[in-house]
Every structure is written in C-alpha cells, then in structure tokens.
Description:
mainly alpha; single chain; globular; 9 helices; 0% strand
Amino acid sequence: MEILKAIGMIVLGYLSGSILTCQLIGKKIGVDLYQVGTKNPGAANLYRKGGRIYGIIGFVLDAAKGAIPVFLAKGVLGLSPWVAALVGIAAIVGHDWPLYFKFRGGRGLSTSIGVTAYLLFRPFTIALLVGTFVGLIVRGIPAIRGYAIPSGGAAGFLVMLILSTYTGEPAPLVFYVFAASTVGLIRNLPPFLRLVREWEKTHASQRL
C-alpha cells in the first residue's frame, strides 16, 4: 500500500508540475509566452510581457504546484523523506517537460523554489539571498541581462549544494538538491550556450 501511495504521489507531482500556470495566465490576457520575449512559459517572461501583477501571481502558482504535492506526500500522508524528495523532483520535471504542453516547458526555477522552500527552509533562505545578489549583478551587465534570473537560480542552487552537503542534512534532502540541480543544469544549459554564441557573434562583428 505504501508503495502504491508513493507511486501515486510521484505521478501527481509530475502532473501538477505539468500545469504551466504562467502560460495559461498569459493566454487569458492575450499573451502567448511561447511567442514573445524569451519564449519561456515561466514567471519571469510573464512578468516582463504580461505585467507585474500577473507575473507575481504566476510565480506563486508555479511555486505552489511544486510545494503542494510534496506537502501532501510528507505532511498529510506521512510518506518517507525519500518519497517527498522524489515527488518534488517529479514536479520540477513536470514543469520543465510538461505532459499537457507537448513537453515544451519552462526552466523550473519557480517550481524548484516552492519545493526547496518547503523541504529545506533555512538553507533555502540563505541561498535565496545569495541568488538574489548574483541576479542583481548579472542584471547590470547588458550582454547577459536576460539571464539574471537563471544565473541567480544557479548560484542559489550551488549554495544549496554546499550547505546541504556540509551541514549534515538528511540523505534524502541532499539527494533532492543534487537531483534538482542536475535537472536545472540539463534544462538551462542549451539556452545558456545559445546566449554565449550570440554574444560572441555580436562582439566579433563589432571588432570587424
């Protein structure tokens, strides 16, 4: 029975993550996030192209769709920390490769924030401060301004890796941080490399 509950919650986590709330909000207000800005159906793009209020609402909903399944697994059903970690990862994977949107998802940062804030609140708070600081620095560099949020998220997860490894966090939570960081790297590396290539082309043409 416990195994069935665990499998069911992992599936629920993925299906919950697959609901691209920002894209749904965008379509409601006449903004197709797949076609504008960074073409990323996430909160940052909605914030820039749909307005501050809608962006904040989208962020909260994206975070909640990750945190709620984990809360149900751990806080309501009392499943093991390993299951809670897997549910959280499933929600992030769902956002990045959503079933309902032909597997064209976002970068998973907002959903990762929701899951991580619930599972590792104290280290998450420190990581959030560091990530925000890095994001503000990157925002001030015109060539990479569009990657301020992913850069801040990457810095935050790096801090999470260090804190979770060297401060004695339980093994399931350390596993979650490593797995979530790996998923984030896989999802964000291709667009980051594309940005680097575009930057190189721009500066190469200026030198010529």
